[in-house]
Write a structure and sequence with these properties.
Shape of chain B: globular
Protein name (chain A): 1,2-phenylacetyl-CoA epoxidase subunit A
Number of helices of chain B: 9
GO molecular function, one term (chain A): phenylacetyl-CoA 1,2-epoxidase activity
Strand content of chain B: under 5%
Helix content of chain A: 55-70%
Distance between the termini of chain B: 8 Å
InterPro entries (chain A): Aromatic_CoA_ox/epox, Ferritin-like, Ferritin-like_SF, PaaA, PaaA_PaaC
Organism (chain A): Streptomyces zhihengii
Number of domains of chain B: 1
Largest interface: A-B, 56 and 62 residues
Shape of chain A: globular
Number of strands of chain B: 0
Oligomer: heterodimer
Structural class of chain B: mainly alpha
CATH topology of chain B: Ferritin
Order of helices and strands of chain B: HHHHHHHHH
Number of strands of chain A: 2
Keywords (chain A): Oxidoreductase
Distance between the termini of chain A: 66 Å
Strand order of the largest sheet of chain A: 1-2
CATH architecture of chain B: Up-down Bundle
């Protein structure tokens, strides 16, 4: 009986996915689909939150007030994206506290890119152009993901990310056209961020554990290598108009393929960073954990206050004379 | 950015060279420095807040203040020259806003004291027809949000747990001595002692009400005096301020004349 019913649900689910319909929180879905989405959305949310750190590193040193305002707004947006994504994950029965706990204890991952350090101001621009650019290339197809809440979150996130990406590009352009020292700073940042950005698309197709199933479920629409190629093809002319070079001697246009060929990615480095041995893994997670632990008394106070005033008749604090 | 020499009211240091800059420029510098410095302090919280919603809220307040600072500093000269090329003795901000963040209660106490002051001051300026009326009318809306945010956190922390109560009380006490300066004269603003006195009375009534509602005790120690802190408007600052400026200005100063 149960098996028959589940089969019916499974058939309805499969038909909805095949017809490009959206799966919504109250719809039946396979356990593995749910688990896979929670894993992906949590990792995405964690990446937004950890991703605040390398950029926040430069807020207090931004070289002009205009740039400082742009950077602050961007880091604020990232916290907002984290909030959207945790909310979207909660529609699948996960809880934000639990997901954060998994991040803090290393049981869930975040994007490996944020384990690289921001050493100069130009890194802020390189992150905007390359890292956000790669993120957008990955995320735009997610706007058509089969799970409704994730797809809708991505529509909002992508709009803001595109804006950040243009700002990053514009920051690099200002440096590239600035003094020789500024130009060198920009080139150095692009040299350091190019390969890690290409790694953001994940392992090559023949080594990607989750890809085939995610594509069958229409969570993912394109393979890692397809998206990586698309990104390279977009970046090459942009680098040219920036007046900067990309650090790959094998990069060249292939007329036959209609794409750029590019050099081999150092997958050993990628694996090391994933394993926690990148330049900033320890620092990033320690800072996140510390912020959470040092904030515990604040969250406890808010909970105690809410509890006390849940039933008690009280005047809103805002009613004190102003 | 644009060169200061093309700006009619610009001077490398309008505040410390009386007579070379207009009264408006001197007042704009004092109010702009308040907003600039507090915005910077709040920016230090990014990635360190106790809960994600506060990452958003603190950055939001910092951005509002930075927006105010940019408008105000532009009235006094070139915003970047003024922010990045003055030394600490030339800054005119209140000592309150330069105080280090401390714990979350400390940051919230500082915000309550300052936002209450700024709200009252801007309301006063918005009601007049002086050069700051337009700016103040816009800013007063932002400040009302900042003040509410601080006020609600003072209530939660003061009336939360025993630990949060103690931390909130300690923070209110520690910053109290910097609050007398809020109602000192601001050069060029043209507010007489009578107006300042009434702003101070309204501030004390409001802050006292918020603290009491939060089950906290209004600090009894002096708010001003010969020994007390409170000379930021004269360019006399506390020790941590120089370090804050060193961090803020380092990159800009390392590339003289560069555009960003």
């Amino acid at each position: 009986m149960t098996a028959v019913t589940t089969d019916g649900y499974q058939a309805a689910f499969d038909a909805a996915v095949a017809a490009d319909e959206r799966i919504e929180p109250r719809d039946w879905m396979p356990d593995a689909y749910r688990a896979s989405l929670v894993r992906q959305m949590a990792q995405h949310a964690h990446s937004e939150i950890i991703g605040m750190q390398p950029e926040a590193n430069w807020i207090t040193r931004a070289p002009s007030l205009r740039r400082k305002a742009i950077l602050m707004a961007k880091v604020q947006d990232e916290a907002g994206h984290g909030l959207y994504l945790y909310s979207a994950a909660e529609t699948l029965g996960a809880s934000r506290d639990d997901l954060l706990d998994k991040l803090h204890t290393g049981r869930q991952k975040y994007s490996s890119i944020f384990n690289y350090p921001t050493l100069t101001w130009a890194d802020v621009g390189a992150i905007g152009w390359l890292v956000d650019g790669a993120a957008i290339t990955n995320q735009v197809p997610l706007c058509r993901c089969s799970y409704g809440p994730y797809a809708r979150a991505m529509v909002r996130v992508c709009k803001e990310e595109s804006f950040h990406q243009r700002q990053g590009y514009e920051l690099l352009l200002a440096l590239s056209k600035g003094t020789p020292a500024q130009h060198a700073m920009a080139q150095d940042a692009v040299d350091r961020w190019w390969w890690p950005s290409l790694m953001m698309f994940g392992p090559p197709d023949d080594a990607s554990a989750h890809s085939a199933q995610s594509m069958a479920w229409k969570i993912k629409r394109h393979s890692n290598d397809e998206l990586r190629q698309r990104f390279v093809d977009i970046c090459v002319p942009q680098a040219e108009s920036l007046g900067l070079t990309l650090p790959d001697p094998d990069l060249r246009w292939n007329d036959e393929r209609g794409h750029h060929d590019f050099g081999a990615i150092d997958w050993t480095e990628f694996q090391e960073v994933l394993k926690g041995n990148g330049p900033c893994n320890e620092q990033r997670i320690t800072q996140r954990r510390r912020a959470h632990e040092e904030g515990a008394w604040v969250r406890d106070a808010a909970a105690a206050y809410a509890e006390k005033h849940r039933t008690a008749q009280h005047t809103e604090p805002g009613e004190a004379t102003a | 950015m644009t060169s200061a020499t093309t700006h009619p009211t610009a001077s490398p240091d309008p505040a410390s060279a009386p007579g070379t800059a207009s009264a408006t420029a001197r007042a704009a510098l004092a109010l702009g420095d308040d907003a600039l410095v507090l915005s910077h302090r709040l920016g230090e919280w990014a990635g360190h807040a106790p809960v994600l919603e506060e990452e958003v809220a603190l950055a939001n307040i910092a951005l509002d203040l930075l927006g105010q600072a940019r408008i105000l500093l532009s009235l006094a000269g070139d915003e970047d020259e003024l922010a990045y090329l003055r030394e600490e003795r030339e800054f005119r901000n209140l000592q309150l806003v330069e105080q280090p963040n401390g714990d979350f209660a400390h940051t919230i106490a500082r915000q309550l004291y300052f936002s209450a002051y700024q709200g009252l001051l801007y309301k006063e300026l918005a009601a007049g027809d002086g050069p700051f009326a337009g700016l103040a009318a816009k800013a007063v809306k932002e400040v009302a949000y900042h003040r509410d945010h601080a006020e609600h956190w003072v209530a939660r922390l003061g009336d939360g747990t025993a630990e949060s109560h103690e931390r909130m009380q300690r923070a209110c006490d520690a910053l109290w001595r910097f609050t007398g300066e809020l109602f000192g004269p601001v050069e060029g603003l043209g507010l007489g002692s009578e107006v300042l006195g009434s702003l101070e009375a309204a501030w004390l009534e409001y802050v006292g009400g918020v603290l009491k509602q939060a089950t906290l005790t209004v600090p009894e120690r002096p708010r001003r005096g010969a020994w007390a802190a409170g000379a930021g408007r004269q360019g006399l600052h506390t020790e941590s301020f120089g370090r804050m400026l060193a961090e803020m200005q380092h990159l800009h100063r390392s590339h003289p004349g560069a555009s960003w």
